Amino acid sequence: xxxxxxxxxxxxxxxxxxxxxxxxxxxxxxxxxxxxxxxxxxxxxxxxxxxxxxxxxxxxxxxxxxxxxxxxxxxxxxxxxxxxxxxxxxxxxxxxxxxxxxxxxxxxxxxxxxxxxxxxxxxxxxxxxxxxxxxxxxxxxxxxxxxxxxxxxxxxxxxxxxxxxxxxxxxxxxxxxxxxxxxxxxxxxxxxxxxxxxxxxxxxxxxxxxxxxxxxxxxxxxxxxxxxxxxxxxxxxxxxxxxxxxxxxxxxxxxxxxxxxxxx
Length: 264
Hints:
The chain is mainly α. About 60% of the residues lie in helices and about 0% in strands. The protein has a two-stranded antiparallel sheet with strand order 1-2.
């Protein structure tokens, strides 16, 4: 069995994922390739798929057969579960570099990022080269970019926390929460230490669901997509202000109301 034959199922898996991310549905593929929808589905399942057809399908997402084989070989390799301190430090020195990495990590194509922010080709090339030297991405011969870090990673080290504190935190605290286009939820809970740990797990699951939502939205190819910042945060509340100000004030208000009622 040749290398390409033994790697065939993995190559097809890579191809199907890339086609989905680019918005290529079975009906759209059928129209593009001049074949029946059922035939296209058989090809994507590996039935009757010749090298020429595989190459043409890969070309629809700007991949070569070599790219497919390379990605398929590396599918089994584990992605880094977190960033090293050196990687976080390097990212924290440049806000665009860190944003670019996070956008790539979340599946946004590099050309889309360049168009949204009018990034000159030379600047983007320098940024991608820097991310590659940091072992954060891998660039395929087709020009596509593959992250080398699991997108479920959590930034726990000081450099990127400091970057968030400087650049992102103000954006959230300056929000007009009364504006109808501001989406937010708020809740006050009383939790044990075990409950707090479980809450952190709930927040991570929510984050994964939001990433999947973004994937589906991108695959749908709908117009009007924009950038949104989402922050989930929980901390122990300082209740002294409530005790010192809120409760006495409430007592006074109740007393006034009762006095008025008694005077009628």
